[in-house]
Amino acid sequence: MTSKCIECGKCRNKCPVYLALRNESASPRAKGILDNRKVLDKIFYLCSLCEAYKECCPIQKLDLNIIGARERLVKEGIELPKNKEMIENLEKTGNPFGIVKE
Amino acid sequence: MIDSLKKQFGEINASESSLNRLVYSSDASMIEGRAKAVVFPKDFEDLQKLVRLAKRFDIGLMPRGAGTNVVGACVPEGHIVVDMCKINQLVDYGPNFVIVGAGMILEDLNNMLKKKFLPIEMDNDACTIGGMIAMNAMSNRVKQYGRMEDWVEEMEVIDGSGKYELIKGDRLKHFVGKEGSTGFIVTAKLKVIERPFLKPLNIMSFNTITSTIEMVDSLLKDPNVTYIEYFDEELSEAMDLGNKCHLLVEYDNDEGKIKDMEEIAEIWELRKNLDSHMKTLGYIECEMFQLEFGNMDKYLYWLRKRQVPTMALFSPNVVTSYFRKREMRKEEIMKTAESVKAKMNYLGTGMKYKNYLTAEEKEGYKELKKYYDLKDLMNRGMKV
User: Fold this and answer.
1) A59–chain B Cβ distance below 8 A for any pair
2) From CA B275, how far away is CA B24, in angstroms rounded?
3) Is residue A49 one of the residues assigned to a domain?
4) Is B269 on the interface with A (CB under 8 A)?
C-alpha cells in the first residue's frame, strides 16, 4: 500500500483554492509534489485545510499534513507577514488581533 | 525574457518562481522535466503575444491542460509552460453541440450538460477538453463511442506562427492527437448526445486465456456487443468477480444477463475506480499498449506467467498492465511488447514514448510543422 501522492491531479477540481486561482501551484497535487521531493515552501500556507482532496484521492491513506508542513516552516523562520504578526500578537496580548483589554 | 513576459502578462499570469517551475515540470506521468517559466493566457490575444515573444527569444512553448496524462505529454524540457486552464468558458451551446474553452474541465462540462453528455468518459475527469483533444482521448467505451476525434466539429486555434485559424473538416486531424505540436487549441465545438440508459451486462469467467480469447473472437462478430473487457485474476478480484479470468460484456439488446440497473451501476462504479484501486495497492505505474488481435493471447499468457496484473479492452485491443514503481520487470515487458509488434504510443506519445515514434509519424509532424509552426516553437524537440 502506498501513502504518497501519485501526482494524478484528480484533486484539482475539488480544491476551492485551486478553483479560485487556476494555478497548479495552489493545488493539493502541488503540495504532494513538494512533499515527494522534500521541498518546503510558503505555498503550504495557501490552503483552506478543508481536505476536499480526500473525496477523490485514489490513495486512501494520503495525508498532505499541511499543518505539519506549516509547523516546520515556522520552525525554520519561513513565515508570512500576517502569520508572523498573529503569533506576535498572541504572545504579547493573548489574542491574534493584538487587542489589549482595557 | 521573463521581464518581457511579466510586462506583457503581469506578475500573476507569468512566473519563473522556483515553485512554479518545479510544479509545472511534471504531470501525472511523474516524469520530471524542466520548465523555464509558466504563463497563464486568458484569450487569443495573450496567446498571440506569447508566440511573438517566443519567436523573439527563440524558446519553445509547451501547452498544458490539467496535466493528467500519463505519458508525459506536457513535461517541458526548457520550454515555457502555457497553462490553458484560465481559458475555460462555456462559449455557446445548442441541442446537440457545445462550444467551450480548452481549459474547461470534463467533469464541469458534463455537470453543466445535465441530460446530455460528451461520451468520452475518463477515469480521471479532472482533465480538460483541450487536453483530451490534444491526446485524442478515448474511454473504455471506445467500441461504441470512438475517440475524441469523433466528437470535435470545429476548433479555434492559434498556430505556432501566431496565426488565428478556424479548423474544421479534414484539417481537424492536424491538431487532434498532436499533443499541442502544431498550435494552441483555444476553443472547441463538440458534439454531445443524450445520456443513455445503462445497458445489460454479462460477466463470463474462464480458466484459460485461450478460451477467453476464443470467446472474445466470437463476441467481436456480434453487432449487439458494445463493450468487451478482459480482467486477469488479480484485477478480477479487485472488481469483486472472484479469482479467475473474466470478461465483462455490454449488450445493446436483451442478451446481457445482468439487467438490474442498480447492479449494473455498481459494476460500472467498480470499473471506474479500478485504476485508483490498483494505485492504492501500490501499482502506481501502468503501461498501455495496442496489439493486433492475433498476438493478444501470446502476450496475455506471457504477462500472466510473470504475475503482472493485466486487463485488456477489445477492440481496439489495448492491454493495460500495472507495475509497482521501479519494478525491473518493466524493461523486460517493453522488449516483449516490441516483439509482439505492440503499438506503444497508441494512447499518446509524450516524453515517455518519444523514442517509439515511427519514421512515418516523424515525417508527418515535419510536414505539419512546415505549415503551422515553421520555427518549431510548439513542443520544441518533442516530435521532430
Assistant:
1) yes
2) 24
3) yes
4) no
Nearest to B206 by CA among B295, B142, B297: B297
A87 sits in which H/E element: helix A81-93
- For residue B226, what pLDDT band results from cuts at 50, 70 and 90? very high
CA distances from A71 to A48, A65, B127 (A): 16, 10, 33
Report how far residue B346's alpha carbon sits from residue B291's, in angstroms, rounded to the nearest whole number.
Answer: 10
> Which of B30, B67, B279 is facing A58, going by the closest CB pair?
B279
Please tell me whether residue B36 adopts helix, strand or coil conformation: strand
Q: What are phi and psi of B314, to 5 degrees?
A: -115, 150
Domain encompassing residue A54 = 12-93
Which CATH code of 3.60.21.10, 1.10.3720.10, 3.30.465.10, 3.90.1150.10 fits the domain covering B90-195+358-372?
3.30.465.10
| pTM score | 0.93
The pLDDT tens digits for B333-368 are 888 888 999 999 999 999 999 989 999 999 999 999
Neighbours of A102 (CB within 10 A): 3
